[in-house]
Amino acid sequence: MPEETAPGGMASGGPGGWRQVWELGDDAALAPVFASMAGDLVRAAGITPMHRVLDVGAGSGNAALAAAEAGADVVACDPVSALLERGRAVADARGLSLDWLPADAQRLPFGAGTFDVVLSCAGVMFAPDQAAAARELVRVCRPGGTIAVASWTADGAMSRLFALLERYAPARTDGRVAAPTAWGNPARVRALFAGGDVRRLSTHHRTARLDYGGSPAQWCTLYRAYFAPIIEAYDRIGPNPKRIAALDNALLRFATDEYLGPLGGPGRYEFEYLLLLAEPR
């Protein structure tokens, strides 16, 4: 199949890569908005107190915290240490005990078959080498265990947001890196996990309902302050009032178009994602 390729810095991670992008934001501040997606992933994986769980590309630990609340023994890993520290603070405030470890999804520092369940909630999809990341998920999950990955689709609202940012704040790249939303394509993820190391694999289109009580304008203010890809887009624009105003207006149109519910609230946003469930041999 033809591989989805990144149109530019927003999808491919830009010259500095996605690690540098996510260092700009604070997904802990947005965690309540994304709680339904993380909870759905943990339920789909069937996590219980009997399981040892790894959350890959955990960020501030939306899925890791949900797994710990289910009673599992959890390790959260991410290449951005600052995000892990924010997750640790949230866990401490909730009285949850889990391990936080800086680690690259493409080179996980764990032995083969270490975990019963390996999760990723819109995290591993941003690893530049998708094939290497997929191999690592399989390697560290025990035979008969569960790999559960939630990734934004190329046709969903999050992909439309990424495309908007790229349109108004383009980055210079060679365009050869596969887009992160390739993980939201069933054929692509089946190809990533082909090779005999996975016994069963299924994909399911799901919708993350992101409840939000504010107006579209307030959504823009929140995401401009905390959502790393939006922060990075404004950084790329620089001190250019005309281009800043254009991106401001485009974001407000996006937030208004995607907003479900009366403008006075309460409202919600719905973002499509692909749930991958796989069982290593």
UniProtKB/TrEMBL annotation:
Methyltransferase type domain residues are 54-148
Signal sequence segment: none
Q: Which GO terms describe its molecular function?
A: methyltransferase activity
GO BP terms in the entry: methylation
UniProt superkingdom: Bacteria
Q: Which UniProt keywords apply?
A: Methyltransferase, Transferase
Q: Which CDD domains match?
A: AdoMet_MTases
Put simply, this protein is called Class I SAM-dependent methyltransferase
**Origin species:** Frankia umida
Q: What is the lineage of its organism?
A: Bacteria, Bacillati, Actinomycetota, Actinomycetes, Frankiales
